[in-house]
Design brief:
The complex is a heterodimer. By secondary structure, chain A is mainly α. Chain A is built from 8 helices and no strands. The termini of chain A are far apart. The chains are: A mainly alpha, B mainly alpha.
Chain lengths: 173, 165
């Protein structure tokens, strides 16, 4: 079944199609929600609220992005709404002035250590890092979803990378 | 020697940011490698059921329409014959059996005959009307008969559903 057919059936409130759409995206969305919130319960709530919103508002989907990108944008907002908090961004004066690319070295990075380091980032920087580096969003899209400027998105990403590098280096020592 | 066309056309240089982005991508290769190995998580099974319970399910079950139509028409038809109380020689039990057989036949042939729901309505109603005009009441009260008819209609709906699932 093509994505368009699946969407059409979901618009007709076909429960089997709704389940199929959920199954296609549940793992990716749950994982993204966990990486943003750092909490499995919050990720579960965000996932549930996201798909409820998707099924109730699917008529508003205009096909300007993939359905996956549309669901992701809802999920990111829900992840913060559910926690009733706005992501905390690192203040400008705390951001590194050095804008050179981060040198990750030649050794392979341990994924387990990286996963833990990501979760220890401040919320705002973590959200920007996850959306751009693991989900492939552009700064413009991240700015729109998170309600920040593109400049903030870029500076938070730069901060996140430098902070991650520091944590990984410290762990190796 | 004449200049080639390429030499005559203007030459352009990309902005410096292009190289910076390429360099960033090259530098981030170890990061991307590690990110691709991050675990994927599965939500709890219960999550889907919680979602499904809160989303309306308007999925069309085609058999619901003829079943609903059969029940409605049977009740209307029997209401009419009970009201008319026109008599011939049938007992009420025989009449019930007759109506039930006609309705069952109608339900069974509904799918295969490609009738529309409207046609099916009309047919069942005609059968009920015919039954009403030939029926002679025995000693039951109208209320008893009505209750009985409703039970028969319900039974008919259940049988129809089972036959066409």
């Amino acid at each position: 079944m093509t994505e368009q057919e699946l969407i059409q059936r979901c618009l007709n409130h076909d429960r089997a199609a709704q389940r199929l759409l959920y199954d296609r995206y549940k793992s990716a969305m749950y994982t993204l929600a966990y990486r943003i919130t750092g909490d499995f319960d919050e990720a579960n709530t965000a996932l549930q609220d996201t798909f409820l919103s998707v099924f109730r508002n699917l008529a508003q989907y205009r096909g300007e992005s993939t359905i996956g990108a549309w669901i992701k944008s809802i999920l990111v907002r829900k992840a913060y709404q559910n926690a009733q908090k706005q992501p905390h961004y690192v203040l400008m004066e705390q951001l590194p002035t050095d804008t050179n690319p981060v040198d990750w070295g030649n050794d392979a990075i341990d994924a387990d250590h990286l996963g833990k380091a990501i979760l220890s980032l401040p919320e705002g920087a973590r959200a920007v890092f996850v959306l751009i580096e693991t989900e492939g969003f552009a700064h413009r899209e991240v700015a729109e979803i998170l309600g920040i400027s593109e400049g903030t998105s870029k500076s938070q990403l730069n901060y996140a990378k430098k902070r991650l590098r520091e944590m990984l280096v410290r762990r190796q020592e | 020697m004449a200049k080639s066309l390429n030499d005559k056309l203007p030459q352009y240089s990309p902005p410096e940011s292009v190289w910076e982005n390429i360099e960033q991508g090259l530098n981030d290769a170890p990061l991307q490698e590690a990110l691709s190995k991050l675990p994927i998580y599965e939500p709890p099974v219960q999550t889907w059921f919680d979602i499904a319970a809160q989303v309306p399910n308007y999925q069309i079950h085609w058999w619901r329409y003829p079943v609903a139509a059969s029940v409605a028409v049977l009740i209307i038809g029997f209401g009419e014959y009970l009201a008319s109380k026109q008599a011939e020689n049938l007992t009420i039990g025989q009449s019930y059996a007759h109506i039930q057989a006609l309705a069952q036949q109608e339900a069974t042939t509904f799918k295969s005959s490609n009738k529309t729901i409207k046609q099916s309505h009309a047919n069942i109603q005609a059968l009920a009307q015919q039954e009403a005009t030939t029926f002679k009441s025995d000693n039951k009260t109208i209320e008893q008969s009505h209750a009985h008819i409703q039970a028969l209609a319900q039974q008919e709906a259940t049988t129809f559903k089972l036959n066409h699932q």
